Amino acid sequence: MKAVGFTHYLPIEDETSFLDLEIETPKPEGHDILVAVKAIAVNPVDVKVRSPKDQVEESPRIIGYDASGVVEAVGADVTLFKPGDDVYYAGDITRSGTNAEFHLVDERIVGHKPKSLSYAEAAALPLTTITAYEAFFDRLGIDRDGADAGQSILIIGAGGGVGSIGIQLAKQAGLSVIATASRQETIDWVKSLGADHVINHREDMVAQTRAAGFAHVDHVAIFNDMRHWDAAVELIRPQGGIVTIDDTDLPMPMAGMKMKSASVHWEFMFARAMHQTPDMIEQHKLLSYVADEIDAGRIRTTLSQTLSPINASNMREAHRLIETGMAKGKIVVEGF
Fold first, then answer.
1. pLDDT at residue 328 above 90?
2. Does the keyword Mitochondrion apply (predicted)?
3. Are residues 150 and 261 in the same domain?
């Protein structure tokens, strides 16, 4: 089968930073399904894993953490899917990735693809959807079905992939969304997704948030980086919560959090699959929930750009675009 991988961790400008490969097609066992991959999305985690380092792989490494496609075959223990089913999922960072013509994945972290979306539109969603959903509803404890309607959430870095779906999930839960964006293109983008207020995270966020009428916010989601920690602590209400997806070496002073009895949460969407937690199937359930919301017209894809076909050249271009830090929504590579 065809695949795109690498042996050396090189700058993306290097033509050998990704290689076109022919490798053996795997066979599913246990809870695994074999998916014929139709489209993949590129995320910052892909770039982080592939970033230059002094390391050489004996056999090519295949990464990729978003896909949509068709179930080709199933393992003996599979109960959720059958051959021919359309699926979408984000995979497992501890296993070979989705940048391959056929891919093995545990059925418990896979959802049925939204019927109303193309493969490219669906591939844009899983990783960021799982991240935002878990951040809001599992970590911060926001009620998905509206019991916390009227509460406020500040989404820092709202124009990226996680923020783009996060805005929509928060609005569906009835929250008032304050989104940050720093360019006119991303300002327009987050407004189109339903943000109630937009502020610039390159300027004084505390002053801007309070000018918008919020002395404090009920929840804060940091979806870009931890440079904004102090502002988040200043803005969170007493007994509120901050969730972040960024591992950081930057200082995180906790005095302000203690004085407010506020909480901080870490979200890593690969944790369930990596540690084989008993509740792995929750990712199947949440992807199915979001698929229903999409097919009902209440949530839309966050796809912003599609490249085709899936090959080393287009993979390099997708990674280059992510590395600029200027991408909005999601970049998808479609079709082998």
1. no
2. no
3. yes
In DSSP terms, 39 is beta-bridged to 68, 334
Whichever domain contains 293, its CATH number is 3.90.180.10
Does the pTM exceed 0.85? yes
Q: Per residue in 53-78, pLDDT tens?
A: 999 999 999 999 999 999 999 999 99
